[in-house]
Amino acid sequence: MSDLIIVGILLALMALGYQVALGRYRKVTGRSEVRPHSRPAYHGLLVAIWCAIPALAVIIVFGLFEPVITRYVILSALPPEVRDLPTHELRGVMQRIHQIATGFGIVGEARPYENVAATRLGTYHAIWNFALVALVASSAVAGLVYTLRRITPRLRARNEVERVIRVLLLLCSAVAIMTTVGIVASLLGEAVRFFGFVNPLDFFFGTVWNPRFSSVGAGQGDFGLLPLLVGTLMISAIAILVALPIGLMTAIYMAEYASSHLRNIAKPIIEILAGIPTIVYGVFALTVAGPFFADLGAAVGLDISATSAFTAGAVMGVMIIPFISSLSDDIITQVPASMRDGSLGLGATRSETIKRVILPAALPGIVGAFLLAVSRAIGETMIVVLAAGNSPVLRFNPFEPSTSVTVSIVNQLTGDTDFASPQSLVAFALGLTLFIMTLGLNVVALYIVRKYREQYE
Amino acid sequence: MSATDTASASAPVDNQLGAVRAGLKRRHAQERRFQMIGLAAVFAALAMVAVLFGSVLFKGMPAFWQSTLHLQISLNADVIDVGPPPVQKAGQNPAEFEAELTDWRRALARVSWNKILEKAVRGVLPADLADAKTRDIVGIVASGERYALRDMVLEDPSLIGQTIDVDLLADANVDNWLKGNIDRSLGQSRQQLSPGEQEIADALAEKGVITQSFNTGIFFNVDSRSSPASAGLAGAFMGSLYMMLVVIMLAVPIGVASAIYLEEFAPTNRFTDFIEVNINNLAAVPSIVFGLLGASIFINWMHLPLSAPLVGGLVLTLMTLPTIIIATRGTLRAIPPSIREAALGLGASRTQMVFHHVLPLAIPGILTATIIGVAQALGETAPLLLIGMNAFVASVPSSPMDQATALPVQIYLWQGNENFNFFEARTNAAIIVLLGLMISLNAIAILLRQRIERRW
Amino acid sequence: MNDISHSPSAAKATATKAPPEVPQESAAVPKMRAEKVSVHYADKQALFDVDLDVPENQVISLIGPSGCGKSTFLRCLNRMNDTIDIARVSGHITLDGENIYDKALDVVELRARVGMVFQKPNPFPKSIFENVAYGPRIHGLASAKRDLEEIVATSLQRAGLFNEVKDRLDEPGTGLSGGQQQRLCIARAIAVNPEVILMDEPCSALDPIATAKVEELIDELRENYTIVIVTHSMQQAARVSQRTAMFHLGYLVEEGPTDMMFTNPTDKRTQDYITGRFG
C-alpha cells in the first residue's frame, strides 16, 4: 500500500517538476539576450530526472537497511531465553511474528512474547513507512527545487539528459554481465557448500551415483559424477553422429546444388526443426522413436531398450540438424566465389570443388559450428529426461538405458527442495560442471567462427 | 579440322587428354553419387519434419473429439431440495446475507448429483440393460461433470424444476474404450472398465447418446487428476501468458537498450569487447543453468514463491535477453551509416540521432527479435522444472504470483500421467496447441518482416 | 552494324597483315572460333552475335569499356557461364572444330583443355605445392608422386615463380604477394597443360612491377599456348597481344592485328576508346 503511495507521489512530483521547469524556462529565456542552449523539453526532463534520482536513492538505502533493522526491532522485544535459541529456531519464531504483524495468521496459539513483538513490529512498520514516504517526498522536492534554480539559457540541459540516458543504457547492458556473474556466483557458492559435504575427488572421480533421498536421514549417498558424464558424452556423440552428416550434406546441397526454388521451400521447413520445443522431441522420442528402435532392434536380433542413450541421442540429433545445417550454410556461402571459379575453371567437377577446395576453406567455421552443436547437445535436458531411461549406472552400451548430467540436475532439484542437503546441493555442482564444459566449448567455437569471418571480410 | 590437326602441339598434350578422358566416367559417377547423398540428406531432414508433425497430428487430433453424452436431465425440485436462492432483504446485514448464501451453496453441493445423472442415463438405456448397476452407470460420466452440473444450477437457479439438454463428457476410460484405444481381447481382470460399464458404453454409443463431439474443455478447463476426461489447458495457458508478459515487459526494453548502447554508443575497448563475448556466450549457455540460477537466487536467496509465473518469467527473461540483444544488434547494424551521418550532419546529437532516426527504422527488426525471443521462452521447459512450476495446479492463476504451470510443463506432466493410454492423445493435443502458437508467432514475425521491411 | 568487321573472312584478311613474328600458317587455322554468340542474363542480353577467331599460339586481347561484354565472352570460351544459373548462351563456339556447347562434349574435359586465370588472384587456401598440384591430381595426370613433383616444378618454372618459392613449397599460397599469387594461379592453370589459357584482367589487382612480370610471362607462354586475355589497359593490349578485339555494349566492334588497331582503327568507337574519349 505504501509502495503505491510512494510511486504515486514520485510520479506526481516528476510531472509537476516538468511543468514548472517549462514555466521557469520561458521566464528566464524571455528576458535574456542569450540564445538558449537546449530546447525547453530537455529542461523539463532534467528537472523530472533530478526529482527521481534522490528519491530512488532513498528507497534503495531504506530497502537495504530494512531487514537489518526489522531483525533488531524484533530481537529487542524478545525475552532473552528466546533470543538465545539456535539460529534456525529463531528464524521460525521471527517468521511467526511477521505473520502475526501482517495479519496473515499462524498455526497454533500465539505466545505472549510473540504478540508483544508483533505489536512492536507493527508500530515500527507504521513509523518506518511514514518516514520513508516523508523522506522520499522531501528528497524529490529538494532535487526539484535545486535543479529548477539551475535553469538558465546557458544550461546544457540536453547534454545532461543525454548523459543520464547513456548511463541507463549502460546499466541495461550490464544486466547481461550481472547474469553471468549471478550464474557463476550461485553455481560456485552452492557447489562449495556441496563440497563441504562431499569430497570433490569423490564427486569428480566417483563411479557410483546413488544420492538417496534427503528425507532418509544422515545416510550419505554416493555422488560419483562419472556415470552421468559418460551418459552425457555418449548421448551427445550419438546426436552428433546423426546430425553432422545430415546437417553438413544438407548445407552443402542447399548452398551448392539446390535450385533457388527448392532452397526457398526446403530451408524454412528444415529450420522449423530448430524452433520445435525440446519437450516435443522428448515426447516424440518416448512414444514414437523409442518403441520403433526397440522393434527394429528386435527384428534384426539386437537388444535395444526403448528408452536408451541411442533413442535420446538419435532424436537429439534430429533437433541439431538445422543448427548445423544453417550455420554451415552461412559458412559455406561465405567462401568467396573466386575459389569456386578457380577450381571449376581448372576442370574440377562440382563435388571435387566442394570436397577439395570449399570444405577445406570452410573447415574452421564448420569446426566452430560443430563445437557449438556439441555444447548444445551436452546441455540438452528434456529429450534426455524423457527418453534416456534415467539409469545412472556406469555403462558403455548405447542401447541400454542411460542418463546425463542435466537429468540428474532435474531429478535432484524438483519436488521438495531443501537447500541444506547434499542431495539438493549436488545439482549445483553438476550445473557448475556443465557450465564449465559448455563455456569452454562456446569460447573456443565463437573464437574460431569470429576469426573465420574476419578472414573473408 | 579434326583433333589430329592439333598434333602440331606437343605430344604430352594428347597423352594428358587421354588421361583426362579416361578418368571422366569415374569422376562423373562420383559427382552423381555426391549429389545424390546431398539430396538424400535434404530429404532425410524434410522427412524428419514430416514424421514429427505427422505423428503429433495423428496422435493428438483424436483428443479434440471426445466421447460426450447428450442427455436430457430433469432437475426435479424434489431431488434438488434447496429452495430458491436467498435474496438480500432491505436493511439486512450484508454479513448475514453472505452467510445465508453460503448455506444455500452448501445445500446445493450436498445434492446427490449422481442420482440425477443416473436417472437421466437410465432413461436412455435399452431395456435389456435395465438392471445395470448404479456404480456402472455413474462411472460412465466423467467424475468432474457433476460439479459442472452443479455450477450450471448455481449460475442459473431458475433451472431447478426444468428438464434441460446437456452435453456431458464421458469418463476417460469410456472414451478409450469407444475409440478403440483399449485392447478389448484382454481378460476382464486387466480391463480398466468394468464389464457393466463396457456394455452400457457400447449400448449408448450405438443409440447415439454418446458421440464423438468437439471438445472445448481441453481449451477452457484446468488440469484435473480426479477427472482426467475434463483436464484442460486453461491454467497452463494463463501461466505461460503471464510469463510471456513478464518477458516482454523486461527482456525487450532491457535487450533493446543494451543493443542500442553496444551498437551506437559504446566505445570500442576491452570492456565492451568483454560484454560482447559475454553476451554471445550467454546465448549458448544451456537453459537448465538458468533454472539453477533461478532456484538459487530467486527462490533460495530472495524467497520469491515457488511455482510463480513471475519467477518463471524472470528466469526466461534472463535466458532470452542475449537472443534479443543479438537479433536487435543485427537489425541496427543493417541500417546504413549514411542515415546516421545525415542526422549528425544536420547537427543532431548522437542520442537524438539514435532515438529520432535509427530506432524508428529498426522497429520491424526489433519486433522480429521480440517474437523470436518470446517463441524461445514459450517452448522452454527445463528451467521451469527447477523453480517448481511442475506442481499440479487445478486452478487458473489470477496473478503472476499465484501457483501456475506452463504449456510445455503441462505436456511434461501429462506424458507422465499414469493413465497414459488416455493422456497420450491429450499430450499430443497439447503439443499441437503449443506448436500452433509457436507457428503463429513465427508467421507473424515473417509477415511483419515482409510488411514493414525497408530497403535501402 | 555495317561497320563491324565481324565476318571470319574479314578477320582472316586482316590477319595476313599481322606483325612478322606471328606464325602465318597458324593464323589461318583458328584454335577456337565463335559464331553468332549471344548471351542473356535472365531477360537482359549481354552479348550480341559475336563472331571471333582465336588464332593458335598467339595472344589475343579483348578490350573495351567496362560492361561491354568482354569478360562475358571470355567465360563462354570454357563454359564458365554454366555456373551462373540465369545465364543463357546461344551460337556456336568450336575448339579445334568441335562444338564446345555440344551435349556430347564433357565440360570437365573442355576446361582441362581451356584453362582460366581470374581477375583477382585466387589461390586455394592450401600450400603452394598443393595449389599447383590441384589440377593434375583431380584429372589424374600423375600416377606417381615423382611425376607430380615434376609437373609442379615445371609449371612453377614456366610461370617464372619457381626460384622465388622453391624453398617454401609447403607454405600456404595465400601468404604470397599479389603478383606472386597471380603467377601461382597461372602455374596452377598450366599444370594441367591446357591448349588455351583464358585470362580475365589478370593484372588489374597488381602493382606495376608485378604487372610487368606477368606480362613478360604471357609473352613467353605464347610459344606453347593460345592465350585470350581481357584487359582494360590499352597499353597492356599493345604490349602483350598480337591481335586485339574491341567490344562495346555487347557488340564486337572491330578485330585485327594489334598494331593496326592502335594506329589505324577503322571504327570510330575504337578510335574514341583508344584516344580516351570514353572508357
TrEMBL record, chain A:
Keywords: Cell inner membrane, Cell membrane, Membrane, Phosphate transport, Transmembrane, Transmembrane helix, Transport
Transmembrane segments: 6-25, 45-65, 126-146, 167-188, 225-248, 269-292, 304-324, 357-378, 425-449
Topology of this chain in the membrane: Multi-pass membrane protein
ABC transmembrane type-1 domain segment(s): 229-445
Biological process terms in GO annotation: phosphate ion transport
PROSITE patterns the UniProt entry points to: ABC_TM1
Keyword tRNA-binding in record: no
Name of the protein: Phosphate transport system permease protein
UniProtKB/TrEMBL annotation, chain B:
Gene Ontology cellular-component annotations: plasma membrane
Any one GO biological process: phosphate ion transmembrane transport
Ranges where the ABC transmembrane type-1 domain occurs: 237-443
TM region(s), chain numbering: 36-58, 241-262, 282-304, 310-332, 353-378, 429-448
Keywords: Cell membrane, Membrane, Transmembrane, Transmembrane helix, Transport
Keyword Transmembrane attached: yes
Pfam families from the UniProt entry: BPD_transp_1, DUF3333
Gene Ontology MF term list: phosphate transmembrane transporter activity
Location(s) in or outside the cell: Cell inner membrane; Cell membrane
Membrane topology reported for the UniProt record: Multi-pass membrane protein
Coiled coil start-end: none
PANTHER family per the UniProt record, alphabetical: PHOSPHATE TRANSPORT SYSTEM PERMEASE PROTEIN PSTA, PHOSPHATE TRANSPORT SYSTEM PERMEASE PROTEIN PSTA-RELATED
Family: Belongs to the binding-protein-dependent transport system permease family. CysTW subfamily.
Protein's UniProt name: Phosphate transport system permease protein PstA
UniProtKB/TrEMBL annotation, chain C:
SUPFAM superfamilies: P-loop containing nucleoside triphosphate hydrolases
UniProt domain ABC transporter: residue ranges: 32-274
Any one GO molecular-function label of the UniProt entry: ATP binding
Any one annotated GO CC term: membrane
Pfam families: ABC_tran (PF00005)
InterPro entries the record matches: AAA+_ATPase, ABC_transporter-like_ATP-bd, ABC_transporter-like_CS, P-loop_NTPase, PstB-like
CDD domains (UniProt xref): ABC_PstB_phosphate_transporter
Entry keywords, A to Z: ATP-binding, Nucleotide-binding, Phosphate transport, Transport
Region (Disordered): 1-30
Gene3D superfamilies xrefs: P-loop containing nucleotide triphosphate hydrolases
Domain of life: Bacteria
GO terms classed as biological process: phosphate ion transmembrane transport
SMART domains xrefs: AAA
Signal peptide range: none
Low complexity: bias regions: 7-19
Entry similarity comment: Belongs to the ABC transporter superfamily.
The protein's name: Phosphate transport system ATP-binding protein
